[in-house]
Structures are given as structure tokens and as C-alpha cells.
Amino acid sequence: xxxxxxxxxxxxxxxxxxxxxxxxxxxxxxxxxxxxxxxxxxxxxxxxxxxxxxxxxxxxxxxxxxxxxxxxxxxxxxxxxxxxxxxxxxxxxxxxxxxxxxxxxxxxxxxxxxxxxxxxxxxxxxxxxxxxxxxxxxxxxxxxxxxxxxxxxxxxxxxxxxxxxxxxxxxxxxxxxxxxxxxxxxxxxxxxxxxxxxxxxxxxxxxxxxxxxxxxxxxxxxxxxxxxxxxxxxxxxxxxxxxxxxxxxxxxxxxxxxxxxxxxxxxxxxxxxxxxx
Length: 277
Hints:
alpha/beta; single chain; globular; Rossmann fold
């Protein structure tokens, strides 16, 4: 089989897995809420907190069932987990999943989450790109590619992250049902901020929140607990450090300056919290 045919088969398999085996089946988009984030911005953490919240608030579960890569699949008896929120690391164009996030190519009215409760979870792009570098270490990153080169890579580095954020900013100005939440606010000063979590859950679930159940869910997924549990449940590598500003101890001074300059010049003004000037 030639290289072109192999590539086509890989693309087909990935598309089939994504559309038919994952949570993003187009026919299941009705009456959904959406959780959109770039990779390594806290999605798995959020999904596990939501799973525990529903288990506690609706079913009275008293013990944590662990930290899972896909809690809805691990515990399908909690049927609402498969019905309440659609998760994606991708934006959409004309109702079809697309990695092309060029702003001029988006017809926002055809996005599947248009006029539906949507959360965009953001994290400092510098922390995201460093975490993504480690995430790719056991996947398809060339072994000889260092962090400095990775950060400057046009497909994996800081550029696609900033592009993704900028499309989110444009979309949120277009659709009032899309709300921004920030990883740094959720985590607080190394302790979760329950008020921010409550507002995010209220927006996604469109209902009042049981704060006792939410606090239990957050405690069950406290960072150190999640790190210990991940190896037992097949989610190994998903929880690394989670530290706000952790990139500073990993990048060179030159690369830090490059990141700051790139973000200052290219990131949408709505995300001024991540700009240094």
C-alpha cells in the first residue's frame, strides 16, 4: 500500500472514530451544551468534576469513582453524562468539525453550538503550549524536537493556540450564549474557586446548582488526588503539574521573550490578562 493510500486510510479512520465513536455525533447536537477548549486547558479535569457532581447530586453517590479519561464512557449508568455536555478541542465550520480555524472561513450561524449554552475554557497560552509539548512526548512529536523548537512550530506551537483563542473571541462577540471561563480562575490560588465553578455549571446545565454536591465533586478531583488516580484508570499523563505560570521554569529567557512578544502582538484584546504589555 502506497504512502498516499495509507494517509487516506488514517484520515478516514480518525474521522470515523471522531464522528461515530466520540461524543461529537452531529445527530446528537440537539438540546446540548458545549464545552470548547484547546488541548491541555483543563477539559479532562472539568469532565471528571461534572461526572462526580451529577453522580452526587442526582444519585447520591458517596464515594469517588476515580479520575477517568472519559468518565461518561467509564460510568455509562450515569446517562446524563452522555446527554448534558458535548466536549470538543475543535472549532466548527458550516456545522462540520474542522481544524481549519482561519477566522475568515467561519460562518458562525452554522456552528452546532450557535445559540446554545457554550463555555470556552481558556488557559494561559504559554502554559498550554508547554503542557502540550509534554503531552506529545509519548505520541507523534519527533524525539529530537526540543521545547524551543516545538513552541515555534507552525502546527503545534504557540501560533495555532493564539489562532484558536482569537476565533473564540470573535464568536463570543457574535453569540451571547458563549461565555469565557479561565483555568486560572477555576483553580484559584492553588485552591479551586467554587463561585466560578458554580457560574460555569449554571451556564452549561441551565439549572440551579447544588453547592454541597459541587464541593464534594471538586474535593474528589483535587489535583493531587487526580494525579494519584490517573494511573489506575487509564488516564495516565493527563494530569502533570497543572501549575499556573509553570511555563516560566521550563522555557529559556529567549523563548519566554518570544512568547510574550507573539502574544502581545497577535492575541485578541479581549484576552488582555495574558498580555505583558
